[in-house]
Amino acid sequence: MAEPRRWDGSLFGGPIHGPLPILLVTLTFTTGIVDAVSVLGLGRVFVANMTGNVVFLGFALAGAPGFALLGSLAALAGFLGGALAGGRVIRLVGGDRRRVLLTAVAVAAVLQAGAIGVLLAVPAGTVAAAAVSALLAVGLGLQNSVVRHVAVPDLTTTVLTMTLTGIASDLHDPGRGTLFRRVLAVLTMLAGAALGALLVNRAGLIWPLAVVLALQLGIGVVLLAQGRNAPWVTPRDGAARR
């Protein structure tokens, strides 16, 4: 009988992933906020969950009321462009997970600030909503690509379908760390979406995006403070499977 998997205790720091798990949990929280902004404030558009966005695009093409065709197309194009850029970043930076994630977060923060600028400068309307959707989606496509390369198990930051599947299907053989991270990812996304919805309904679109920007800058500061030679920077053999 196989022994249950053990948690290495590295959610908040450790030799395998260092601070990456808690930073990715934070990004998961920001994803919930951003999707709340896009769905509730930009015409029912997903900028992080492309499965949902493609479905919404199908609704818009069929003429269902309340769905933004231009916004969904802008988000899909932006996400793909961001993922493409993420691949380029990975090739340029190589195996340094700290620099890869730092680059992605820095670019995403600039795009986040750009989205806030559009909301402040451009009159509300379909074009402005599509532009904001595209900017946010580029950042999340980049994030998704880079997080896939960083390879911390059960922390994808944008999609929970496989996380939920893993929680249910592995209950017969739960690893303490694996189950904890999966449940934490779900709860974190839920909390981010709830906070995002609350802020959108009570304060508009700018404040929730400002919260996301502040968290992105905080993640950048943490990564900048880490040494280049930290043991977690380059993935160890088998790290992605733990």
What does this structure look like?
- With 242 residues, the chain is an all-alpha fold.
- It has one domain (20-225): Growth Hormone, Chain: A (Up-down Bundle).
- Helices cover 69% and strands 0% of the residues.
- It contains 8 helices and no strands.
Low-confidence stretches: 1-9, 237-242
Proportion of residues in helical segments: 55-70%
**What characteristic shape results from the CA principal axes?**
globular
Number of separate domains: 1
Mean pLDDT score: 87
Tell me the name of the CATH class: Mainly Alpha
Report the count of strand segments.
0
CATH architecture: Up-down Bundle
CATH topology: Growth Hormone, Chain: A
Through-space gap between termini:
19 Å
Task: Determine the number of helices (DSSP H or I, runs of at least 4 residues).
Answer: 8
Secondary structure category: mainly alpha
Strand content: under 5%
Q: Which sequence of SSEs, written as H and E, runs from N to C?
A: HHHHHHHH
Radius of gyration from the alpha-carbon trace, in angstroms:
18 Å
Mind summarizing the main beta sheet?
none
Quick tags:
single chain, 242 residues, mainly alpha, Growth Hormone, Chain: A, 69% helix, disordered N terminus, disordered C terminus
Give a short summary of the structure.
With 242 residues, this protein is mostly helical. It is 69% helix and 0% strand.
Q: What is the topology?
A:
Elements: H1 20-41, H2 50-61, H3 69-93, H4 97-121, H5 126-150, H6 161-169, H7 176-203, H8 206-225
